[in-house]
Design goal:
The protein is mostly helical. Helices cover 82% and strands 0% of the residues. The chain contains nine helices and no strands. Helix 3 packs antiparallel against helix 5, helix 3 packs antiparallel against helix 6 and helix 3 runs parallel beside helix 9. The protein starts with a helix and ends in an 8-residue tail after the last helix.
Length: 298
Amino acid sequence: MTLESNVLLSVDIITFLIGLPLNVLALYAFSVKIRSKPLPGDILLLNLTISDLLFLIILPLKMHEAASKMEWDLPNFVCSITAFTFFSTIYTSSLLLMAVSVVRYVAVAYPITYQQLRKPAYAIVTCVLIWLISAAHCSITIIIQHHPVLSEGNSSRCYEKFTEKQLEVVLPVRLEFFFVLFLVPFLVCIFCYVRCILILYSRPNISVMQKQKAIGMALGTLAVFVICELPYNTSHLVGYIQGKSPEWRYYTLLLCTFNTCIDPIIYYFSSSAFRCTSEKSVFRRHASKKHHQPTSSS
């Protein structure tokens, strides 16, 4: 077994053993919360958990691939399903994190509007659209494997070692992934969380501890983009410039893989810190000022 496959297999096993129980626990927690009080943020975070669990479910197939020295000896359709699920869940998570940041920003900056838009139906529609967008983009993994023209000369590796015809399609699509599915969500998250922090610090009725929790959650989410997703998505940009798939791309995917262990921690802060600041302190007090209601009425 090569060094590359050894590293991949080790990280996959560690991620699976840590990430699976954490995300199962998160799934249970959000399911209970949504049954009692379906808030938009929790619905989005539930979908994030489901996305991570789908990623973890197909991870044993990636372990088998690594144990086989990166040679794919399973049926071709299994490769297509694995690649499609693997990559679509990565981008589903990015888009859902963006949606969570927008919800938190609206809750803090426009509490009255948030109150009007907090119906579960809006969050559900958003989740459906996000799943469809990521699935439509990542269908390229199936097209490359099964298109009668592009599938010619496929190697024994799963969604790797592309032919010239395949690269003519894959590289531009990956470049579009970089801008649409990574850069846009990343910039939206930066804007929303920076604005949230500035707004919270401008309001004296928010405690220092609540502000610090909100900042910690915001920085944690942005760290996921920078540490876990930026290197992998940068490989799309580099690959398009070089005209080939970078060999170091494997190692950047390890960061995306380990992200499933970090997400549950962010879920916790995202559902508690901002709820404490935006929905309890900010919303109620700011709303009372807007409507000039006495503080004794609740």
